[in-house]
Each structure stands twice: as structure tokens, then as C-alpha cells.
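Hi team,

As requested, here is the filled-out complex form for the zinc ion run. I kept the field names the same as last time so the parser does not choke. Let me know if anything looks off before we queue the next batch.

— J.
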Amino acid sequence: MNFDEALEKLHEIDRECRYLDQTAAVLQWDQETYLPPQGVADRAEQLAFVRKLVHERFIAPETGRLLKELGSDSQNLRGDESLSPLEGDFCKVMRRRYDKAVKLPADFVSAAARAEGLSQAAWVQARRNNDFAAFLPHLNAMIDFARKKARYWGFGNGLLGDEYDGLLDIYEPGMTARNISALFGPLRDGLISLLKRIAARPQPDVSFLNREYDVAAQIRFNRVLMDRLGFDSSRGRLDVSAHPFTTSLGSDDIRITTRYYPANLLSGLFSVIHESGHALYEMGFPREIRGTCLAEGASMAVHESQSRFWENVAGRNRLFWDGLFPLLRDHFPGPLASVSVEDFYRAVNLVKPSYIRVEADEVSYSLHVILRFELEKQLFSGELEPEKLPETWRKLMKEFLGLEPETDAEGVLQDVHWSMGSFGYFPSYALGNLYGLQFWAKLSADLPQAEQAMGRGDFEEIHRWLRETIYRWGCRLDPPDLLQKVTGEKLSITPFLSYLEKKYTGLYGL
Ligand code: ZN
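And here is what came back:
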């Protein structure tokens, strides 16, 4: 097989695995949106089967052989033939994934998948019954699988880093617990101090938010909103699910979901803005990488930087609502009759610590994440026994947010992640805030008029900047390299904290 044939063959493996992954994603999307309750058992088997197929296809000896033929990691050279930068990155990403996947025995992968299914079902029950003890055996199993996985990859033996570093690396390549702690320590102190100052100030009246908001009108408004944000409805759609999410079923088929509550206008609306941010990233990959393994976000945190940028920096911006509020009021003439754009702006920026992460405001949100990071770190270092999680959760919650949840359902059992074995995922949410504000600082410096343009509902300049500086790379660059290329900086808490400080000083008269 010559060089070009080997490269084409590797692309074929990538395509076939992608088709299988997207097939699994369709099944998963359907499960979250339309599947009747009795269909869940068959669906779990279908999903496990497709995932087994993709794993087997990917780790076949052929993949390893092709990667070897196509050259060594750093040089992209084989004899006198060399890869273009694009193909070099393609091989780099394929090789990295192959090296990880091939280290996991097939039996381990299927046992973990089955246990995750059971654990998730047990978690749903346990949360409903506020029964942590019933979930504990599953949690222990999930921790055990996660530890083993990290060890298969070579973490936890003193060479690559600790087991928890191996789990963080899944979502944020190269990130370690030590690096995150160095950012999260001062971030926590800064946020707690800001929260205390805000708490000492009078709160705005936001009672109008809990009036009755017709769901059909919410759906209509959200469609207009998505369109304004640049979501291309010929390449995606919006549906309803219990937990909002974004999924790519193909290069030109990006699905987002939200949920609706008649007495909570903001929940559905901000979920649509958040998920649209993820979708714009997925829709914005350039032609040359679409349909390949390079057409993915640089990392979970970089993906989150996009969704949280649209949700918070844009969606909780006064100028954004100057442009959109009249239209919102047209959709809800009753409940918003006597509400001004200033009232609305203050209401969407209400800072009030609460138990639930997904409902948290912009200032307290990252503290929810730092709390979970601290617990995960202690769990994997052996410092914290899983049975002690609920009380340690309450202790940290008191320390960070001044609140103590009365039930585990609104404490340690609130999130799905641990029940799926997704340890190491949480930090991405807070890291995403940091990336997002560093990108925004650079964007504002490059395009001083971009923020004003928001007030006219014009996001064109912002879209172009994001396409040209971030989307174009897909996952060709690791997050630190992407950040360096775009901003010339290392990851930092300063832009995020200064942004909050300035904005909330204005809002609360600090
Ligand atoms: Zn998100």
C-alpha cells in the first residue's frame, strides 16, 4: 500500500466510525426527546451494540498499522513523502484516540457501559426518593471503573500523573488537578468576596418572572431568537427534552433541545441561547475539516466557552436586550406589560445563591463547579470516602455559598454526571467561563463596535471573528495552543473576575 492509499484508508476508518457514532447519537437524541418509556430497555441494548461496533472498528489492528506507516508523531514524514499540516493534524488526532482506545480491553468497555446504564437508572430513582444510600453501591462501582480506566492509560503509577489527572485529560487534554487548583483557589476567593458584597445590597424586584408565560408563545419567541443568533434552521432543529443538550447527527444536522415551564420564562429561553452557542460552534467548522475527526470542539471547556459566552456575555448584556426586549414583550403582552428593559436586564442578572448548579447565576455558578472539583479530587486521592460525600457536600456548600441543602436530592444527587462515571467533566464548566472571557476581551479589542452592534441585533462581526479565530481550527489545536494563538495569553482568571466586578458594581451599586 502506498502512502496516499494508507492515508485514504485511515480516512475511511474515521468516516465509518463517525457514521456509527452519529447513528448512536440519533438513537440517543431520540431517547431524550420522543422515545416512549417502555422503549428504554431495547434502546439501551441497541446503543450498547452500536458502541461496541465502533470500538471494535476503531481499535482493529489495521488502524495501528496505518498509523505506523504514516509516520512518527512529531515529524509527519515517511521517507521523502510528507503530510500537509492538515493531514498531519488528522493523523495526530487519530493516533491520540487510537492510543487511548486500544489500551481499554473490550470486556472492560462493555462491562463499564452496562454498569453505567444501571447506575443511571438507580440515580434517577435515588434522586426521586432522596435516598443516597441506594445509589452508593453504583457510585462505588463507577469510581472503580474510572480508576481502572485511568490506570489502563498509565495514570496513577507515578509516571503520567494521578488517576484523577487521567480523568481530567479526557475532557481537557493535558490539564492536571494541580493546574486547575492553582486557578480555582483564587477564583473561589474572588467569587465568594464578590457574592458577600452583592448580598449586602438591596435586591431588585423580579416577581414578574414567575407570572404565567404561555408555552406556545415561548416556543415562538425561541425560534425567532435562535434565528437572530445565527442558528441555521436548514442545518439543525430545536426540540424539547428533560435536560437541554446539543448533539451533532451530521455535519449539517445539529440538534438542540430546551424545556419549558409556564411560570419560569428564563429557564427555556436561556437554555436556547446556551445550546445555540454550542450549535454555532458545531455549524461553524470549515469545509476542509467537516466530516472528519477534526470537526470537533478543541475541548469540553472550549465548547463551554462558546455556549456560556452567548448565554452570559451576550445574553445577559444590556445592549442585547435593548435590541430584543420589544420583541419579547410583543410575545408576552400580559405578563410583561409594565416591565421595562431595565427591569428585565436586572432580573436576568439577579445574583442569589441557590442549591442547584444549573439554575445558578453568573457569579455563584463557578462556585458550584469548584465544589464538585474539590470533592472529586478528594475522592480519587482517597482522602474522602464516598459514603461521606453528602456531609462533605453540605459543609463545602455552607463555606462557599452560605447555604446548607436539606435534602441530598438538592445536594449531592442533583447532577447526572457521577452516575454515568463522568468524573473530571465538571471543571470544564468553570474553565469555559475563563476561556470565554479571554476570547471576549480579545474580540472586543479587535472589534470595538461589536458590542454596540448587538443592540441592533447585529451579530455578524462577532460570528465572523469566531469563525476566523476559533471555529476554523476544530480540534486541530490543543486548548492552551488555541488560547495562545487567539489571545497570546495563558489561561487566567483575571478577565473573568474583572468582567464580573465591573458588571455587578454597576448593577448593584457596590
Ligand atoms: Zn453546555
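Two things worth flagging: The CA atoms of residues 150 and 423 lie 11 Å apart. Residues 73-77 have pLDDT under 50 and may be disordered.

Thanks,
J.
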